[in-house]
Amino acid sequence: MINSSPQGFLLHLQRLSTEDGPGLRTTVFFKGCPLHCAWCHNPESLSTRLQTQWFSVRCIACHTCVQTCPNGCLTMTASGLQIDRERCEACGKCVQVCPSGALEALGTTMKVDQALAELLKDQVYYEKSGGGVTLSGGEPTFQPDFAEALLCSLREQGISTALDTCGLCSIHTLDRLLPYTDLVLFDLKLLDPLLHQQFTGVSNATILENLKHIRDSLHNQGHPASLWIRTPLIPGATLSDENLSAIGRYLADNLHGTVSRWELCSFNNLCRDQYIRLGLEWSYAKTPLLSREELAHCEQIAKASGFSPQHILATGATRLDL
């Protein structure tokens, strides 16, 4: 029996999204992820704790937050506010007193009925565009009770659902979520296990096992979901002819007829400021967008890998070379 009253720890709801499945969608971003990809585009979603971010352009240097912090974690310097994140307990008191909104809390607890009420506000957009709701993150399977109850509630309302997952979870969790999922967006970043360990912090063995389990579930148990594979194109990491060819061969050999789209997602650097607001270093901060030619080359390599070319799509912004 599904627990109808679990709470979820969420980052935010993003309305009118066009990148997380078909049509217009509202994406529910969960907080917490078992992977720590070196290129992560949502660093604020990695931690399962409440966090505080600081916007330098909003700060008026009034020192109110510094004076309010009960643990003395804040210091106003010539370069701006410094947060001792090792000592910070994310109590939120500094956020509450900031007069200019320069400090924001990242993470909020919501019950299923609260989240559903917000998601239903966009129902007309889902119906008119063929869209729906996507659970993303972070990692939704990290909070299986809430994810299952929310997906079930959405299904009862006739809203199409999608699960965006890194694939690192238990098979039991997948079996709980798949019956209420119309589309699985499955990240397949690196096929080489050593490189996967190097760049994400974990092995890809369980991820590949879970991908095959989803395949078997779709074929043998009649789950209604479709399956999209998504590969981020990260310079120096996932973006190599060898990796794209290996992933394509793997899909052709192991998931023939199951994957309806393999999406190559061009590297983006829009999250640079997010790392700064969290006081984090990002090794890709100076990495430029791919050129149009580089993205086209990746698509060409993927289409020559043995996987169905008609199901391969390269997406994302490219840089303008003058």
Structure write-up:
The protein is α/β, with parallel strands linked by helices. It folds into two domains: 9-47 and 108-315, Aldolase class I (TIM Barrel, Alpha-Beta Barrel), CATH 3.20.20; 51-106, Alpha-Beta Plaits, CATH 3.30.70. The chain has eleven helices and 13 strands. It has helices at 64-68, 93-97, 112-120, 123-129, 144-156, 171-177, 193-200, 205-220, 241-254, 272-277, 292-303; strands spanning 7-17, 25-30, 51-54, 74-77, 80-83, 103-106, 108-111, 132-136, 161-165, 183-187, 226-233, 259-266, 312-315. The strands form three sheets. The chain has a nine-stranded mixed β-sheet. The radius of gyration is 21 Å and the shape is globular. The model has no long low-confidence stretch (mean pLDDT 93).
In a nutshell, what does this entry contain?
With 322 residues, the protein is of the alpha/beta class. It has helices at residues 64-68, 93-97, 112-120, 123-129, 144-156, 171-177, 193-200, 205-220, 241-254, 272-277, 292-303, and strands spanning 7-17, 25-30, 51-54, 74-77, 80-83, 103-106, 108-111, 132-136, 161-165, 183-187, 226-233, 259-266, 312-315.
Write the layout of secondary structure elements.
Elements: E1 7-17, E2 25-30, E3 51-54, H1 64-68, E4 74-77, E5 80-83, H2 93-97, E6 103-106, E7 108-111, H3 112-120, H4 123-129, E8 132-136, H5 144-156, E9 161-165, H6 171-177, E10 183-187, H7 193-200, H8 205-220, E11 226-233, H9 241-254, E12 259-266, H10 272-277, H11 292-303, E13 312-315
Parallel strand pairs: 2-8, 8-9, 9-10, 10-11, 11-12, 12-13
Antiparallel strand pairs: 1-2, 1-7, 3-6, 4-5
